[in-house]
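Note to self: the last two entries modelled the partners one at a time, which told us nothing about the interface. This time every component goes in together.
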Amino acid sequence: MSHPVTLGKQGFFATLRKDAWWVEPALVAGILTAFGLYSTISAVLLRTKFEVGPYLSPFYEPLLTPNWWPFSPAILILWAPLGFRATCYYYRGAYYKAFFLNPPACSVTGYTNKNFRGETKFPFTIMNLHRFLLIFALALNVFLWIGAIKSFRYEGEWGIGLGSVILTANAFLLMMYSFSCHSLRHIVGGRLDCFSCHRTQKATWDKVSGWNESHKQWAWMSLFSVAIADIYIRLVAHGIISDPNTWSTPLRVIH
Amino acid sequence: MSRMQTGQKVTFRILRGEGDSLKEVDYHVEAETGWVVLDAVLNIQATQAPDLSVRWNCKAAKCGSCSAEVNGKPRLMCKTRLDDIDTSQPVVVHPIKSFPHVKDLVADVKWNYEVNKRITPFTPAKDADFTYYQEDVDRVQEFRKCIECFLCQNVCHILRNHEAHSRFAGPRFFVRVAGLEMHPMDTADRTQFLDQEAGVFLCNITKCCTHVCPEDIHITDNAIIPLKERVIDRKYDPLQWLVRKVTGKK
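The predicted structure of the combined assembly is written out below.
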């Protein structure tokens, strides 16, 4: 049996792949869209019940409430972690496939353009600011750890609740997402050619390189942990669920 | 996938022809335990289609000659065991696609060698003392594993779909440049080449090259992204610019 074929580009989604190549980009598109919608609603539109007892939603950490700012305080913070994620080397590869279909998956034809510019022209040159957004992300990690430690103290009494555990896990996952960053790997030692001349930097580079191998996993786990922490605190603040904890005083809504 | 048994019948659907007259032809073979796709293709060539063109050499995943697309995935035919693919359906074998097709399973990959010539070769200092340590070369030794099978070039959508051959060097050559740029004894600066000629910023980091590399070179994480970061140092980082101005270092 034989039949004629055309080699090379064959139109949108053309591929000889027999596996379910569309599952991963579809999942990425679905999860990122859901997270984008949820974070917009939670951090921008819902401006109350984000702090209950010792728990502050990570969308609002650190809480900045200047008198001159009429909008949600989360907006003053969120540009940094969102920008950090949007310019992240892992997420870029994932969303170029999921949203830009460029390509939809490996060996699958998507958008084609002989004048393709990649990341050489604005707005995609913004991706090169990733290392600067990393600085803000690292600073936010400090505030998130402070928030996590504070979540163990309520009404002058040390204790522990499920919210404390969630906020601590979230701070850890976000820290690992930042510490496994490709730009950080470059800054701490990757830019060097002679490792034996800079042994401390080589040791740091080795450490970050090890974390960097799981950057994708840290990226997704920290994304989920932020959403889970915010959902949990809002559910407690609305009285839908109660936080199991060791404090004698019931948690009250602060903001 | 189930283990292939000797005598099991498998259908191979192989792209045949040249120019505009291309067709997929089905060949039925009795496979043997332990066969790889190249075994089947060579069996077909020996018993059913003596005019079948296929490029191969070492049959040990080291020469990089038998690159093809098996069921749509870029693979070395000699490293693709029938045990690992679904043989209940016809196994589709096509040539690699980012380069001009010659005949049957053969593509013309000479463009790659033209790109290679444009890269500034290893350039040590004239009075260099070649004493350096293993920790200095661990990183670049990964890049020396490349067997030039060009599967990464084949799967890269910038070559495959956007046909940017005149503006983009491709993953294989970012690996080569990384091996030179990160070498402790090399003194040449290839960042302008990377930016202006090799088009490193055309890469949008989809990691397809890494996924298909038969030598497991972490092309994206260890070569392309670090090279992008080195170009960013020069082109987009005002702090680095200031440091260079103050210290006088390149």
